Structures
1.
Amino acid sequence: MKIVDIKLGRIVVPLKKPFKTALRTVNSVNDVIVKIITDTGNIGYGEAPPTGVITGDTTGAIIGAIEDHIKKHLIGMDIENFEEIMKTVDQSLVKNTSAKAAVDIALYDLYGQLYKAPVYKLLGGYRKEIITDITISVNSPEEMARDSMEAVGLGYKTLKIKVGKDAQTDIKRMKAIRKAVGYDIDLRIDANQGWTPKEAIYTLRKMEDAGVCIEFVEQPVPAHDFEGLKLVTDNISIPVLADESIFSPMDAMKIIQMRAADLINIKLMKTGGMHNALKICSIAEIYGVECMIGCMLEAKVSVTAAVHLAAAKSIITKIDLDGPVLCKEDPVDGGAVFKDSKIILTDEPGFGFKNIYGVTYIN
């Protein structure tokens, strides 16, 4: 199964409602689609969102990295030589993790097809179904409380609340949400780097004192501030999850060894795909640190890959893969089945994609 061509395209999928965080507001998914074609007629699909405020990757950068750097090295390579292919992708250029992730996902899709097995079974096969949380965008306390109640009405038992825009208002937001949903619903909060370390400690202690009851707080301080992250972790009882601070296996190792966070978040667009994400899982297993798997605003192709990783590995205990259910429509035929909070895997080879509709190919 040799690679004969790599096609690149763009896809636009509108969201049900604007997605708002401390870093940005987004109205639609605008992703790059990768289609790897082999001499056997097998096709592998990958996907990457341009999330410049987190990864630094724009649409043009993703396309340029694949077209000008990665593609030329992969043409003619055999999927059977998988380790060499992964090494080639990684060494094609530095950084550009979203571009690498899109290619990596398409390659794992083909790897599963080569051995006629779903990827999650090849990687461990721990489970076939997972349960995701759903994100509540940052808005006024009243609107966030209403959105939270709507999510609970759809059957979600865990909500991830976006905060980090204003500490005092964040406290009001969490009080309003907890009052609205009661104490049978788990609340996670994500500050998206929005606080300073001292502001984070103050705000989180106030939330604790108010009886909000928080499962964990995600990335309370700027990504580069490992020491500030550790200061927060050492001074609050709420578990701390490192997200934007971790791109590589080396980042994960440093955070864990510093005890700068209690948990780590794996996102394929930060790790450069499944290959490095698996290394982070192994590091976490060695140290006994539980992982969450998350996504950017992505359609179902790349999120399906993340679902397979989550289903394969027991160290991934928390799931934040709500991207497809935030979309108004699903342009992907095949892949994981999303039923509100429940995500179910099929036994189709690879990731089980049959087609992607609405893609505008550019090469």
2.
Amino acid sequence: MVDESIPTSDGDYQPAKYVITFSYIAQGKTYVGKYKAGSPAEDGHTFEIQYDPSRPERNTGSDEQRLWVRVSVWVAAGALVFLIVWLSNR
């Protein structure tokens, strides 16, 4: 289950209501990303992102990348637990 809530300034959480789409140019090619937000962003709004020069489609602004990292961590943790249990039963 993915938590799609957004923290507010007073510490409460509200559901993400908007999908913000952005684009950036890296190595002469245009890439598109998106993220969920609790409030809209105006057209032309700018913000900084970082991207992997060897894989420019990977960036720090997209939710999809963050989900991929979370899933990878959970899979690795599950594999580690399985390995520890398996080795302790040998």
3.
Amino acid sequence: MGERTSTVPRKRGRPTEGEREERREQILDAAVGLFVAQGYGQVTIDEIAAAARVTKRTIYTYFGDKAEVFTAAVERFRGRALADLGDGGQTLEELAARLVLVLHSDDAVGLHRLMIGESSQFPDLAERFYDSGPRGYIALLEQRIPQRDGESDAASKAEALFGLLLGERHRRRLLSLTPAPDLAAAKEHAAEVIALFGWSAAP
């Protein structure tokens, strides 16, 4: 007879880096689902832990309080949104199209609706949302704004450009009046907005 293999599971040690990252993603997925469905103020750490199948202690260890969980979710979204833009060598047109595609998506619109509904009750959270999202996107656009000799208003132009990349189309998305754009539609919208500023397309 061959050697019998034990069916008793080995005692596990400390989780690996990969396991920690997987658990972190699991917590954030659960938290975002609950936040969007119920509202930030209605969700408890206990509910997040139950949905993610972890302990409360795990959440506190990985993130801290509920506000930190929400901030981490917004920052993760931004990271995923811009992950394929590489080392910053993309053109203004490429970045603008990517922002339209991402910020008009169902996930982004869901987070935006959530924050609008919760901002008056949680102003500090609203500030974190703005810092981790819009303010960062505007800064990226500012780096790619064409500058002519003597001009120093890239910041205001970037803010105006960002506003137009969302604009009425984003308002309609928030109201569920239109579907999320595909890549072709995002590129078209970005090109139309950039043309309003008189900037020529990249070669």
4.
Amino acid sequence: MGIKSFELEPAKENLLETLKNDSIGRNQYIYHFVRFCNALDNKCSIAINAKWGQGKTFFIKQTKMVLDSFNPNIIELTEEEKETVKEIFPNFVDQSSGLSILKPQVCVYYDAWINDNDSDPILSLINAVIRSTASEYSFGENYNLKELLELAAPIVTFFTGFNGESLIKLLESKDPLAEIKRQKEIHNKIAVFFESLLPEKGDRLIVFVDELDRCKPSYAVMLLERIKHYFSNDRITFVFSVNLEELQHTIKKCYGNDFDAIRYLDRFFDFRIELPPADMEKYYKSIGLSENMYYCNLVCQIVTNQYGFGLREIEKFYRIVRVTIGKEFDHDERQAFSGYVLASLFAFKFIIPIILGLRMYDIKLYDDFIHGRDCKPMIDILTSQEIRPVAFSSLLADGETYHQSSKEATVVKLENKLREVYETVFNILDNNLYDEKFIGKVRLFEAVSMLSGIAAFES
């Protein structure tokens, strides 16, 4: 098997697998959010707030998967997949009748970032509704994507009561009467579509809007305004997956730095929900490196915590570390080693994760570190309270100790020993030379390049 992607994509199989394993401990929050959506009985706009890379897309797509599983009219999932989800969330099934206790919801996922080159966001939004909900409905063989977008105006008119004709400029026709007839036919098709959509497929329409904070400022503002003005139906819920801090900056780019972006956003969101943090113990376990590399795993966790990596960054970081030092995992840390092997193990389980973490976090800190100008990152991480000094006993000379144990032993500071390692590795004049305790910089950088003989390209 080759190298997997550095990022776990929210594809259907991954969504289902992480639900089954509850890999980050968020199933309980999905359960309660589904309950929340099920309780709504009028129009509502909800913001799910979390920083970038914290799993917002997974959360809303898994929520959609759960709602789809309990709607018998949705064919996006197989019956086997639906049964799997129902086994994960048995409380949504009436035990006596075996029927769902949830109202059937028609769910649509809309990636705002992908569509932010559109002239008007309402077009791509309506097209997403059509594509997501009309899988069994035919508009006729002669309708292409461009014509489907032209359906947006009649949809808005029919579904919201507002004059949607003003949203787009219809193509000019040499035969006005023929054009009027064509528009009437399209309108009739849309009317039939929406008349059958909710009664047949569900009680409510839930539109999950993702990546709004990554959009161009003008597009993000326009999308919010369009939804506010054109979607007032009591049976529509909008769920926005956003980083509100970044979205505020986006709003200010349109209206100026002194603009009250918080109050502006309050106009659009009826509820703000802070996405609870992932269960990191579960998450680290699900992407664990190796049972043999306890200290490497520990250093990786300290790096991700200290540099504030989100779930997406952690996933990428761990995979890079795994590839970079792959064959070194053949060594069991519980065994005793000495000389060059011990020096190599020290470099690969303690130093390389720091280098790779710095390279992702801050390129200037990384540059200063690898060129021997700043050892602070290494000192800060390896003197963390999570690592006991006994992990660095191999750095001690005869008669030295980190803690006073006898009158004969000389107490030394761990920080000083780590500085000695750093200076030897990164500032030694001849990089091809190293003593018995320290590996040279050349081999270290060769490993970090991911082009060394120990890199694990197959797994």
